[in-house]
Design brief:
- With about 675 residues, this protein is of the alpha/beta class.
- It has five domains: about 130 residues, 3-Layer(aba) Sandwich (Rossmann fold); about 190 residues, FAD/NAD(P)-binding domain, CATH 3.50.50.60; about 80 residues, Alpha-Beta Plaits; about 160 residues, FAD/NAD(P)-binding domain, CATH 3.50.50.60; about 60 residues, Alpha-Beta Plaits, CATH 3.30.70.3270.
- It is built from 16 helices and 34 strands.
- The strands form twelve sheets. It has a five-stranded parallel sheet with strand order 10-7-6-18-29. Strands 20-27-21-22-23 form a five-stranded parallel sheet.
- It starts with 17 loop residues before the first strand and ends with a helix.
Length: about 675
C-alpha cells in the first residue's frame, strides 16, 4: 500500500509554483506535435517553475516524476497535459495526494482529444491548440485553492424498483450480505416478463422452472421487504440518505386472510381480457396474474368490478378476505442506495400498417406466440390461429419489427433478443409439428451470445427452418384468413410470395412507458434510445450520473436474461460497496451561494436538474438560495443562469473562468 505523505500546507495565498508535465501518450500526442517545443513554450508562461515530458505520465514511472517534484518543494500546483480528464484525472489526483499536495491543486489539459486527435492531419493547427490548452490550464492553476472532500453517512439499506429477473437477483445478493432491501413491484406479482416465457434460449430450459424457485426465495428472504402492487411516488435526499415514499395500492383482498383457494373466480360474473396473456385469454375481475404468482393472493380490478358482492359472501369466501373499502397506504423509508430495474415494454407494431397487426387476426407478436407455446398459457402449449382456433400448418416470422428501423423513424437500435427468440419459437413449433412449414424473414441474424451461433445453425440444419433474407413489403389476407406475404429473397435475387396460416412479428424491446416518471423522481438521465443512461458505457456501466443510484437489466438497454442477471449482480455489488463503507466521500465541486448578492428569485431552483437547491429564509438577507452539497453535481447550470452572480462553483469559480478566458483571448 502506498504511503500518503503529510499534506503540504498550501493556503492559496502563496506564490504559485506550477509544474507542467506533458505526456507523449505513445504517438497519440508525440506523433503529431513536437512535445519538446511545447515544453519550451510552457517554460515561458507566468509562474511555471518546471516543465517535463515523458512517454506515459500515467505509468508508475511518470507518476513518480511528479511526486518527486512535489516532495522536493519545487511545485505547489500540478498540470498534466495529456488525455481526457475523464480517463486519468483520478490517477494524477491520487499521485498528488500521495506526495502530500492537496489533490485539488491539480489541473489537466486535454491535448489529445481536443488537439492532436482532431487535428492529426494538421500538425501546425494541433500545436497551436495544444499551446492554447496549456496556457489556459496554467491560468486556471494560478487561481486554484485547496479544497476538502465532504463525507456523508450511508444508510445500510437499498430500494430496488422492479421485481423482474434483474431486480430479484440484485435483491437476493444484497439481502444475503445482510442489507435491508425494499423490493417495489408495480404489478401484483414479481417475475416480470420472464414469467411469460415458455423456454429460454439457447439451452431450452423451462423458464418457470428457473424463475419460480427464485421468486419463492425472494418472498422467504427475511431481509427483503416485498412490496408488490406498489409504486414509488417521491424521492428526496442524496447518496447514502435517500428518503422514499412508496404507494401501496389496495388489493381489496386481505392478504393475510386470503388462502388462494380460487373459489371467488368461479363466482365472479365479470370477464375481461387477460393482460398476462396479451389479450389471447380472459380473466375475472378478481384474479391472480398466473398460477405461480408470488405472492399468491388475489387482487380485485376495481376498474372492471361491478361490486355485486358475490365474492364477499361467506359461502364463497369463507375467510371473509374481501375488503371493498380497502384504502391505499403510503410507506416512507430511508435508504442509502437505489437500483432501478424497471424492465421493458414490447414494441406495439400497430403503427406499421403494412404488416396488418390489429387488422388481421392471424398476425400476432412474438410475445403473444410465447404465450401460445407456453405449457401454462391460454392453449396449454398447443398454438392455434386466433381466427378459427385451428392449428396452423405454416407459419412465418418477420425480424426487426420496431428495431433497426431507419426508414420509418422507429427505434434504430438492435433489441438483441429477437433473432434468438424467433429461432427458439420456430424450433419449438417444429418439434410439435415436424411437417409444418416454418419461415423466418430477416436482413441480418445476430447470434452474439454463448451458444447462440450453434443454436441458430442447428435450427436450419436439424429442424428444417427456412431463413429468407429479405424485407417484407406488405401482407394481405385471403377469405380463409390466411396471410399472404409479398417479399424478396436478396440471396436468390427474386421476389417471393408466400401464403401462411400464422404470421408472427418479432417485436423489439422498448423503454417502459413510465420511464419519464422514474427519470423525474430520481433525477437520472436517459440516452437517445430512451433507456436509462449509464455514467460510462465501459467503466461504469451500472452507475448513473446521480451518485448512489444504479441501473440493471433492460432498464439500461436491450439485453438477454444472462446479461440482465450479470448486470443486476454488478449493480448489487456496487451498492454493497457504498453501504459497506458506512460513509462516502463527495467531491467538493458544488455550488456556493453568496447570500449578500442573492435576491431569492428562484431561477436556480428551476434550473437545477438534481433538486439540490431550495429557497430558505436567512436572518440577515431574507429569501435566499441554499444548496445541498451532497446533491449538487457542480454542473454550473445555476451559476451560469444567475443574473446576480450570486453562485460560484468550487473548482470552477468566476475568477478561474475569467482568467482562462483572458489568457485565451
Amino acid at each position: 500500500m502506498t504511503e500518503i505523505k503529510k499534506e503540504i500546507k498550501v493556503t492559496g495565498n502563496e506564490r504559485p509554483k506550477i509544474g507542467v508535465y506533458i505526456c507523449h501518450c505513445g504517438v497519440n500526442i508525440g506523433g503529431v506535435v513536437s512535445v519538446p517545443d511545447l515544453i519550451e513554450y510552457s517554460k515561458t508562461l507566468p509562474n511555471v517553475e518546471i516543465a517535463r515530458e515523458y512517454k506515459f505520465f500515467c505509468s508508475d514511472v511518470g507518476q513518480k516524476m511528479i511526486k518527486e517534484d512535489i516532495e522536493a518543494g519545487l511545485v505547489n500546483r500540478v498540470i498534466v497535459a495529456a488525455c481526457s480528464p475523464r480517463m486519468h484525472e483520478p490517477t494524477f489526483r491520487i499521485a498528488c495526494k500521495e506526495a502530500g499536495l492537496n489533490q485539488f491543486l491539480f489541473e489537466m489539459a486535454n491535448i489529445r482529444e481536443h488537439s492532436t486527435w482532431v487535428h492529426m492531419r494538421d500538425p501546425e493547427g494541433a500545436y497551436e491548440t495544444a499551446k492554447d490548452h496549456i496556457r489556459m490550464a496554467v491560468a486556471k492553476a494560478r487561481e486554484l485553492v485547496p479544497l476538502e472532500v465532504q463525507k456523508v453517512k450511508v444508510e445500510p439499506s437499498c430500494l430496488i424498483i422492479g421485481g423482474g429477473i434483474a431486480g430479484m437477483n440484485a435483491a437476493l445478493d444484497l439481502a444475503k450480505e445482510g442489507y435491508k432491501v425494499y423490493l417495489v413491484e408495480k404489478s401484483p406479482t414479481i417475475g416480470g416478463h420472464m414469467a411469460q416465457l415458455d423456454k429460454t434460449f439457447p439451452t431450452m430450459d423451462c423458464s418457470s422452472c428457473i424463475l419460480t424457485p427464485k421468486m419463492s426465495e425472494v418472498s422467504r428472504e427475511k431481509n427483503i421487504e416485498l412490496l408488490t402492487y406498489s409504486e414509488v411516488t417521491e424521492v428526496s435526499g442524496y447518496i447514502g440518505n435517500f428518503e422514499v415514499t412508496i404507494l401501496k395500492k389496495p388489493h381489496y383482498v386481505d392478504q393475510e386472510k386470503c388462502t388462494g383457494c380460487g373459489i371467488c373466480i368461479d363466482y365472479c360474473p365479470v370477464t375481461v381480457g387477460n393482460e398476462f396473456d396479451l389479450g389471447l385469454a380472459t380473466r375475472k375481475a378478481i384474479y391472480i396474474p398466473f398460477p405461480q404468482a408470488v405472492p399468491g393472493q388475489y387482487t380485485i380490478d376495481m376498474d372492471h368490478c361491478i361490486k355485486c358482492g358475490i365474492c364477499a359472501r361467506t359461502d364463497v369466501c369463507e375467510p371473509e378476505a374481501i375488503v371493498y373499502d380497502d384504502e391505499p397506504e403510503y410507506l416512507k423509508v430511508k435508504v442509502g442506495t437505489i437500483i432501478v430495474a424497471t424492465g421493458w415494454d414490447s414494441y406495439d407494431p400497430t403503427e406499421l400498417k403494412q404488416y396488418g397487426y390489429g387488422k388481421y387476426p392471424n398476425v400476432i407478436t412474438g410475445l403473444q406466440m410465447e404465450r401460445l407455446l407456453s405449457s401454462f398459457g391460454p392453449v396449454i402449449g398447443k398454438p392455434v390461429r386466433p381466427s378459427d382456433l385451428k392449428e396452423p400448418h405454416s407459419i412465418a416470422f418477420l425480424q426487426c419489427v420496431g428495431s433497426r428501423n431507419f426508414r420509418e423513424g422507429n427505434n434504430q437500435y438492435c433489441s438483441r433478443v429477437c433473432c434468438m427468440y424467433a429461432t427458439k419459437q420456430a424450433r419449438q413449433y417444429k418439434e410439435k409439428h415436424p411437417d409444418a412449414d416454418v419461415y423466418i424473414f430477416y436482413m441480418d441474424i445476430r447470434a452474439f451470445g454463448k451458444g447462440y451461433e450453434e443454436f441458430y445453425e442447428s435450427a436450419g440444419r436439424n429442424y428444417g427452418i427456412s431463413y429468407v433474407r429479405g424485407r417484407i413489403a406488405e401482407v394481405s389476407e385471403d377469405e380463409d384468413h390466411n396471410i399472404i406475404i409479398r417479399s424478396e429473397d436478396t440471396l436468390l435475387q427474386q421476389p417471393v410470395e408466400l401464403k401462411v396460416n400464422l404470421f408472427i412479428l418479432s417485436t423489439g424491446l422498448e423503454p417502459r412507458v413510465d420511464a419519464d416518471i422514474i427519470t423525474s423522481l430520481l433525477r437520472i438521465q436517459r440516452s437517445a434510445d430512451g433507456f436509462f443512461l449509464e455514467a460510462h458505457p465501459k467503466l461504469r456501466p451500472v452507475d448513473t450520473l446521480t451518485d448512489g443510484i444504479f441501473i440493471a437489466g433492460v432498464a439500461q438497454g436491450p439485453k438477454d436474461i444472462p446479461d440482465a442477471v450479470a448486470q443486476a449482480k454488478g449493480a448489487a455489488s456496487s451498492a454493497a460497496v457504498l453501504m459497506a463503507q458506512g460513509e462516502v466521500e463527495v467531491e467538493p465541486f458544488f455550488g456556493v451561494v453568496h447570500p449578500e448578492r442573492c435576491i431569492g428569485c428562484g431561477m436556480c431552483v428551476e434550473n437545477c436538474a438534481y433538486g439540490a437547491i431550495e429557497l430558505v429564509e436567512d436572518r440577515w438577507f431574507g429569501t435566499v438560495a441554499k444548496i445541498n452539497e451532497a446533491l449538487c453535481k457542480g454542473c454550473g447550470a445555476c451559476s451560469g443562469n444567475c443574473r446576480c452572480s450570486a453562485i460560484d462553483i468550487k473548482g470552477f469559480t468566476a475568477e478561474q473562468i475569467y482568467s482562462i478566458i483572458t489568457d485565451r483571448l
